[in-house]
What we know:
The chain is built from 4 helices and 8 strands. The chain has 170 residues and is of the alpha/beta class. The chain is globular.
Amino acid sequence: MMPSIKSLHHWAYRCRDAEETRHFYEDVLGLPLAHVVSADIVPSTGEYSPYVHIFFEMADGSYVAFFDLGDGEITRRDPDTPRWVNHLALEVENEEALETAKARLEAEGVDVLGVTDHGFVKSIYFFDPNDIRLELTCRISGKAELEKKAAEAHELLARWTNRPERVAAE
């Protein structure tokens, strides 16, 4: 039996410049730089690939992390995936915090899309210096409404999976 997964420890992505990324995540978003690992050998594979791995801590103790490989490159986008699909969503406390974050980002010159009302959350969207789409979101639904959505989730997914145009394409 698979043990229960307790929480997110970190989400890691490539960055072009560790200091540029530090400035954005620490000075703009307010996530403190909490840990740095710098090495020439990748511990999991044993391959030579110099890197710095930087971790920014969120209020719940989880991290957003980045690898700077020293080559000034960012992860290449999949040209077949719309730009809005892959993103990292981070939760703020409430709608007031979301509005405050939007104003702070805009004051820093960051282009922000939203506030978008998704029915159960409200969100704003923007890109970091590595062209990673970020979402700040806050919950607006109560526990009863979220439980109702969870009870409907399998049925809604089955409808999507079994829709005629998808079945015909297979």
